[in-house]
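Researcher: Please translate sequence to structure tokens.
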Amino acid sequence: MESKRIAVVLLSGGMDSAVVLAIARLQGFACEAISFDYGQRHRFELESAARVARALGAAGHTVLPIDMRAIGGSALTDDIDVPKDRSDIGEGIPVTYVPARNTVFLSYALALAEVKGAWDIFIGVNALDYSGYPDCRPEYIEAFRRMANLATKASTESGAEFQIHSPLSEMRKVDIVRKGAELGVDFSMTHSCYDPDGEGRSCGRCDACLLRLKGFEEAGMEDPLSYVA
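Model: Translation complete:
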């Protein structure tokens, strides 16, 4: 029996990455999930990532510690207030942008892929309903793909090429919610909030919460998470 192709899936614990893992599994990949404990204030997402990995049948789940608080420069890793109730989401780059985060994460995912013999990496970036991060754009993903195939022993010696899959890139949040529901993703296991309370309840007011709630509302579905606001 032919073994399944392996894919490395970046899994934050949020709804987008959960849907991406479900998509990769549907496509027949044996999925190696990778998550990062990078000093984020919303560390509850790591518990969600573990639950999602188990529920969606990831072949493995690696959690890597990276101290991005030592660099700071973001409301997610520094003593900077998380913006709330923004009406201009997507206009400009907010202080929740973490410097070079996706580049760092994809680099680790690429290293894991090279070790695991995987040629496919999945990431849940979105370029429509999102907070305006430059490392979520399709041109960035394509640039990283080109770099990956120049910089690795696996690619340069074998002639094969790494592929970076971003299946949600051109989807709105409502479409992501509907796709997840279609694939049987249990959204109650996920966590999106940038600034949860001590019990892990979502604030309901940060960009991530507002975009998530908008997606569920437009899909005509109820978000199963508990919110403070």
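Researcher: Any highlights?
Model: Residues 174 and 219 are 5 Å apart (CA to CA).
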